[in-house]
Amino acid sequence: MTSGIKRYLAEGDVRVSPKMNMYEAAQQILNNKASGASVVDDDGKLVGVLSELDCLRALMTSVYNGSDPGGSLVNEVMETNVEVADIDADIMDVAASMLDNKRRRRPVLQDGKLVGQISCRQILRAVTEDLNKE
């Protein structure tokens, strides 16, 4: 199977603001049943990613230290060294890179702008659809 990732982009990808507190960001991720979120600035530019584990770590640290569980901001916790995929990238290449780098999702850019994200779930869907065709 060699096809682009465009048709497999996550529907309604989750986006959060770097100024959002961790409780709000965790709620966004939970409400959307996602494994993480793209962090975008006021201009919609990708500035980082936030995972479920990032949220859990921040919230548990706050609870453990007796501070406000929502006190940390996304920009204090998010990963800023973000690996991205181009909208025209081959899905198998993206999958291999995600496996090599142990990432569950990858923001997808078109002409430098965030258009969505691809996750392991979408790649699994693509692979199983292809296997069903054989």
Q: What oligomeric state is this?
A: single chain
Point out poorly predicted stretches.
none
Mean pLDDT: 88
Largest sheet strand order: 1-2-3
The fourth-level CATH homologous superfamily is CBS-domain
What is the helix/strand order?
EHEEHHEHEEH
| CATH level 1 class label | Alpha Beta
Write up this protein.
The chain is of the alpha/beta class. The chain has one domain (6-133): CBS-domain (Roll), CATH 3.10.580. The protein is built from 5 helices and 6 strands, in the order βαββααβαββα. The strands form 2 sheets. The chain has a 3-stranded mixed β-sheet. A 3-stranded mixed β-sheet has the order 4-5-6. A hairpin with a 5-residue loop joins β2 and β3. α1 (22-31) crosses α2. It is elongated and about 55 Å long.
Helices and strands in order:
Layout (H helix, E strand, L loop, with lengths): L14 E2 L5 H10 L4 E5 L5 E6 H13 L9 H4 L7 E2 L4 H10 L4 E6 L2 E7 H14 L1
Parallel strand pairs: 1-2, 4-5
Antiparallel strand pairs: 2-3, 5-6
